[in-house]
Amino acid sequence: MQAHDHSLCPVYDSIELLQEKWVLHIIRALLGAPHGFNELARAVGGVNTTTLAARLDRLEREGIVSKAIESTMPPRTRYELTDAGVALQGVIDAIDGWAREHMRRCQAEEFAPDEPEPAVSSH
Amino acid sequence: MQAHDHSLCPVYDSIELLQEKWVLHIIRALLGAPHGFNELARAVGGVNTTTLAARLDRLEREGIVSKAIESTMPPRTRYELTDAGVALQGVIDAIDGWAREHMRRCQAEEFAPDEPEPAVSSH
DNA sequence: TCAAGCGCTTGACATTCTCAAGCGCTCTTT
DNA sequence: AAAGAGCGCTTGAGAATGTCAAGCGCTTGA
């Protein structure tokens, strides 16, 4: 891993952060409302707790999410976005806008008559 | 993996697409100008060719990138964004805006004196 | 009293990503 | 004319990243 000039670029670094699996999903869920841990897992849909814990840990260290322990005994935690986190609304909105416009993966993209199938390899 | 309702949501699917490693980097590079394969690898900085080939393949199938073979003999290819791809400018811009505002990772986030290293597991 | 929920963690596995090398070819440099 | 260096990829083997199932101690609602 030699230092290439890209690593000096904040945009490059941001992308690095946001492309980690589930990060954008987590932020999207948290933009709606604060959540507890398992609750958040359900809101996101599909994350396993191991990964979620790792992501929340990183996001907290990056100052995007804040964790409030409401009670230890009946364990209850609350994750919510910091100001920096809320500012990611713009990113989510942009994705949202693009999705509505171009993510019509249900309707085939071009009507290719000879193609047997568009082969949309979604998960 | 049972079907959870999220998979019906285009935003969810878009995030799924965009979070694949290097995808946003590739789009950002391609927003600047079309590129050849190795050239693109350099522009992105840090991708290995195996992954790049896989991403371009998917992005082409998704209708975001188009591939033009300019000559086979001295191999020369050109990758560029389709209309749908160019429309992702908005997403990149949003990330860009956020990065400038909040991605000041150069200044330490909290000054943790006992931590040996922030362990930013960048590539 | 008893199952269900809370917030996580651990260890074993599956998937994804990376590294190095190399194919046949052509264009530049020596 | 001979030797790189560059082009667009592909392969196989390894490293990193993400996932699964189970479970901890505890509380609440049935």
Question: In summary, what is this structure?
Answer:
Two copies of one chain form a homodimer. By secondary structure, chain A is mainly α.
Topology:
The structure is a homodimer of 123-residue chains.
Chain A: H1 10-18, H2 23-32, H3 37-44, H4 49-61, E1 65-71, E2 76-81, H5 83-86, H6 89-102
Chain B binds a DNA duplex (30 and 30 nucleotides) through residues 20-22, 36-39, 47-54, 69, 73-77, 121, 123.
Task: Give a written overview of the molecule.
Two copies of one chain form a homodimer. Chain A is mostly helical and 123 residues long. Chain A has a single domain (13-102), classed as Arc Repressor Mutant, subunit A (Orthogonal Bundle). Chain A contains six helices and two strands; from the N terminus they run ααααββαα. Chain A has a two-stranded antiparallel ribbon. The longest helix of chain A is centred in the C-terminal third of the chain and has 14 residues, at 89-102. Chain A is globular, with a radius of gyration of 18 Å. The first copy, chain A, starts with 9 loop residues before the first helix and ends in a 21-residue tail after the last helix. At the A-B interface, α1, α2 and α6 of A face α1, α2 and α6 of B. Chain B binds a DNA duplex (30 and 30 nucleotides) through residues 20-22, 36-39, 47-54, 69, 73-77, 121, 123.
CATH architecture of chain A: Orthogonal Bundle
Greatest interface and its participating residue counts: A-B, 55 and 53 residues
Number of domains of chain A: 1
Largest sheet of chain A: 2 strands, antiparallel
The number of distinct helices of chain A, counting runs of at least 4 residues, comes to 6
Oligomer: homodimer
Number of DSSP strand runs of chain A? 2
- Which structural category do the helix and sheet elements of chain A fall into? mainly alpha
Helix content of chain A: 40-55%
- Radius of gyration based on Cα positions of chain A: 18 Å
CATH topology descriptor of chain A: Arc Repressor Mutant, subunit A
- SSE pattern of chain A: HHHHEEHH
CATH top level of chain A is: Mainly Alpha
Tell me the CATH superfamily of chain A. Answer: Winged helix-like DNA-binding domain superfamily/Winged helix DNA-binding domain
Shape label of chain A: globular
**What's the end-to-end separation of chain A, in Å?**
31 Å
Spatial sequence of strands, sheet with the most strands of chain A: 1-2
The chain-level mean pLDDT of chain A equals 83
* Beta fraction of chain A: 5-15%
